[in-house]
Amino acid sequence: MVRAPCCDKMGLKKGPWTPEEDQILISYIQKHGHDNWRALPKQAGLLRCGKSCRLRWINYLRPDIKRGNFTLEEEETIIRLHQMLGNRWSAIAAKLSGRTDNDIKNVWHTHLKRRLKQYQTKPDNIKKNPKIKPKIQSEPSIVCQSSDEIPSSSSEASSITDTSDHREFDNIKAANMVDSSECFPDIDESFWSDSLSIPPLNFEAVSDEYQPQIPSFPIDHIVDARQSLDDDSMEFWYDVFINAGGDGDFIVQF
DNA sequence: AAGAGGTCCAACCGCCGGACA
DNA sequence: GTGTCCGGCGGTTGGACCTCT
Hints:
single chain; repeat; two-stranded parallel ribbon; DNA binding; disordered N terminus; SANT/Myb; Myb-related protein Myb4
């Protein structure tokens, strides 16, 4: 089956939006809302496809959009949420009011990712710049949850078997998540030298990009997790991980 | 002053899943 | 059950802007 294009692109404008187009879109949505993005540009008199209108509204024109630089707190939140959720920008954005998934994606790729890389190769830098705390770990991200943290949904969480279920799980998780630091306890400076350089579980072969690095939770938790996984379940989660493209979330129940 | 290279971000693209006929 | 529409998502990119030499 070949999907029909989202809209007939013939004669439709692409590229940057003009202030006039913005104004037309804003006043139309204020008047009529945006029930049907596909029909909206035609009704509003815009030579754009519905997708383009939606994106412009969501990422730029919405009245509740927060512009300007990300604060330190926001950056830390992004880092921590990314650690837990992976590249699920919309889920991360949902936790940062006024920021869009596009904004977060951009700030991650332009600032945070590079900064993380820097600190992971030179952990000593952590002392020089307090912006990054030593609980950071890059992908593959592991969502650690103690079973009593999420009493109402642990069974739902454990039933997640593929990436398509992650969105549902996002909601469950988001509803229960108060502070990710509960999940990732603070560690002291000695952790850098004392703790393991073993990657969590046995996934070092999964991604070339993955390097043994800063564990995001104490070693005894990792050991416990390893002990609790028999070969079959290890193989199962390995498959899940591979199917998720090597950087999907990986759930460990303690 | 200028141009080469790097950075940033708005916008596009393709894919996916839910809803519905 | 199947096909189609539509909204939403993450990955990617083009070009404007900035910095360095």
